[in-house]
Design a protein that fits this description.
CATH superfamily of the largest domain: P-loop containing nucleotide triphosphate hydrolases
Structural class: alpha/beta
Distance between the termini: 109 Å
Shape: elongated
Number of domains: 4
CATH topology of the largest domain: Rossmann fold
Largest sheet: 8 strands, mixed
Number of helices: 15
Strand content: 15-25%
Length: about 550
């Protein structure tokens, strides 16, 4: 057994550096060293794919946390419990039992290779059965000065079984591919019982909660949340040829031409022409492409699998979200569209339509457990402006019935068009897309920062996290092909399917009169035809 220095005793945990050296682990970028040196409670290594975030987390965080603390007593070193009432416990939580790369690395190092890292241990038991959900390594470090055994448990968990996370105090919890986990896995099940949380992840649209966690750490350092931006340079065997091929494609999407050919930088990122995409002072056209910035730059572009081209910040030149009421909104016409559910949220969105057809979503109702009558009554109470028309959920006619009972103007034209999910989604996407003539979208949305009864925070959250399933054979606009809440999405597509946003469109009262006239004419025609048909059958 290796000799311990005085820095390893008196209740202090084993220092990381000697253990990492014994593992033969090295890092190649300063940001990785900063990640290992940080003492923050929550650490987020943010990285593109294939940039060694899982390996760094295992070798520099998990395994160095395995040994217990040591103390000297009567001239000898003895292990001691981290807590008086329990053994040391490390959890590695994957999106599923079979998707847990950090546990794979730890199991191989601690069990398969049975390495010695300057301390002795015995593998008391081990299991690696993802199909049975049984993934655990129990390490025996001997007995403390009182003769009690000292164990460390390294366990592989799954967020598909969140009930299994509600148990003991945990010294360290690693969320493997953290972007694949729902916010409740950390906030509800782990945050209250975990000393240290590490979230290695590639930015993905599902992980908006993790992005917000990272931003809170930047705004409030006292919270103990640190983010570390890994780049492909962190992996010494990264495939730079593939990187520069995709880099050229991104430049062609942004600039319409390839500025840096793959041959210029085939060896590594900072090649012969000095183009370093990851230097904040470098103007890299490829990084202006959100998809490339997310997949190869590890930035929070939230682009992969996105359903709507919705932007909530101006990092890429524009934003759909407004923090103040725009000039002229008070002169627009107001409409309300809705998507009703009882167990699902019932949603209503208030829209202001300008004379030029520009639209602002300025208020929302987003609540569960409302019956149709209460839903309609709440909408009426919240409508402080004159509403030109209420666009009901075409799948829930009882809502429209209650609207009519209250004497509210109801949009009733072309219900099949409202039910056309694909057409409505494309109209919503068209409104969110940039107009090539004006350089801005036709649809904007107010944030809760406006105050005074304005703002659509739930709609903003839904639209930026709505995403598609991959590898699915169903229609691209079916409910089976989309992941996430789509209630405000449905209310939005109903609104734009109505064509109300067209300038100078007649009001809903005139529409209803025309529709009523058409219905009466159709009824009269049926009444005239029916007796003739009966007489014809009798004659035959």
């Amino acid at each position: 057994m290796a000799q311990f220095s005085l820095e390893w005793v008196d209740g202090k945990p084993l220092p990381k550096l000697p253990i990492m050296q014994m593992l033969g682990y090295r890092w190649f970028e300063e940001v990785v060293g900063a990640f290992h040196a940080s003492t923050s409670r929550i650490k987020i290594p943010l990285a593109p794919a294939r940039t060694s975030k899982s390996l760094s987390t295992t070798m520099g965080e998990v395994i160095p946390a395995v040994p217990p603390a040591y103390e000297r007593w009567n001239g000898k070193l003895y292990p001691k419990k981290t807590r008086d009432d329990d053994d040391r416990r490390i959890w590695i939580v994957g999106p599923a039992y079979n998707i847990n790369k950090e546990f794979d690395y730890a199991y191989r190092k601690l069990v398969v290779e049975r390495a010695r890292y300057g301390f002795d241990y015995h593998v008391k038991s081990h299991s690696y059965s993802p199909k049975q959900g049984n993934m655990q390594v129990v390490l025996d470090f001997g007995k403390d000065k009182h003769g009690a055994p000292i164990y460390t448990l390294v366990e592989g968990k799954s967020s598909t079984n969140p009930e299994s996370l509600e148990s003991e105090e945990v010294d360290m919890a690693v969320l493997s591919e953290a972007a694949e986990h729902e916010a409740k896995i950390w906030n509800r099940h782990l945050a209250t019982r975990t000393k240290i949380g590490i979230f290695p992840t590639t930015p993905k649209i599902r992980a908006d909660w993790l992005r917000e966690e990272s931003q809170r750490g930047l705004m409030f350092p006292e919270l103990g949340i640190e983010t570390f931006q890994f780049t492909p340079k962190c992996n010494p065997v990264y495939d730079w040829t593939r990187y520069w091929q995709e880099h050229g494609k991104a430049e062609s999407r942004v600039e319409g031409r390839v500025l840096v050919t793959p041959a210029d930088n085939a060896r590594e990122c900072h090649g012969s022409n000095g183009h370093d995409c990851f230097d904040p002072l470098t103007e890299c056209a490829a990084m202006q492409d959100p998809l490339f910035a997310e997949q190869f730059g590890g930035r929070w572009a939230m682009e992969e699998g996105r359903v709507l081209p919705f932007r909530w910040d101006d990092e890429y030149g524009f934003s759909h979200v407004l923090d103040a009421i725009p000039d002229g909104m008070q002169y627009g016409r107001t409409y309300v569209s809705m998507d009703y559910g009882y167990n699902d949220p019932a949603v209503a969105i208030w829209w202001s339509v300008g004379t030029d057809g520009e639209v602002v979503a300025f208020r929302e109702l987003y609540e569960r457990g409302l019956d149709p009558q209460d839903f309609v009554a709440t909408i009426k109470a919240m409508s402080t402006e004159k509403v030109e028309a209420y666009i009901g959920d075409p799948q829930q006619p009882q809502v429209e019935s209650f609207l009519r009972k209250l004497g509210l103007p109801v949009y009733s034209r072309n219900k099949p068009a409202l039910r056309d999910r694909a057409a409505g989604a494309l109209r919503l996407i068209d409104a969110l897309s940039l107009d090539p003539h004006t350089g801005r979208p036709r649809l904007r949305i107010l944030s809760e920062k406006v105050g005074g009864g304005y703002g659509c925070p739930r709609t903003i959250h839904e639209w930026k996290t709505l995403r598609r399933k991959t590898g699915l054979g169903s229609h691209e606009w079916s409910t089976a092909s989309i992941v996430g809440d789509d209630h405000a999405f449905d209310a939005g597509r109903y609104f734009f399917s109505s064509n109300i946003t067209q300038p100078n469109l007649p009001g809903s009262t005139m529409d209803e009169a025309v529709e009523e006239h058409i219905r009466r004419n159709r009824t009269l025609r049926r009444q005239r035809v029916q007796p003739m048909t009966q007489l014809g059958r009798m004659h035959a």
